[in-house]
Write a structure and sequence with these properties.
Elements: H1 3-19, E1 26-29, H2 33-45, E2 50-53, H3 55-69, H4 71-88, H5 91-100
Parallel strand pairs: 1-2
Length: 103
């Protein structure tokens, strides 16, 4: 195990001990190799624990691949970024978005 994975494991383990292992069923982290290794170690230590990587980076990589390989996706993703940037740069639109999506 690398020093970085060991550090991640110790950090997550300390947090779990503070919260109480009986109160935790799942740990979710990004999908970096050090957190994968730390998650495996935690699951070995605590048999009822599940480690899950965050899906956001995976979806981001998929969309980047789509954008690179298919022209129609390049246009769609570029338009989506513009709409998203427009909405998130205006607080009133964020409020409306949160209202209609229930948070």
């Amino acid at each position: 195990m690398s020093k970085i994975a060991d550090k991640a494991f110790k950090m997550l383990d300390a947090i779990m001990e503070r919260i109480g292992e009986g109160n935790i069923v799942q740990v979710m982290t990004n999908n970096a190799a050090n957190y994968k290794a730390a998650g495996q170690l935690l699951m070995a230590k605590i048999k009822k624990l599940f480690w899950t990587s965050c899906v956001t980076p995976c979806i981001d990589l998929i969309l980047k691949d789509f954008e690179k390989k298919l022209e129609v996706h390049q246009v769609t993703i570029a338009k989506g970024r513009r709409v998203t940037s427009y909405i998130y740069s205006r607080t009133i639109l964020i409020s409306i978005l949160r209202h209609f999506t229930k948070g």
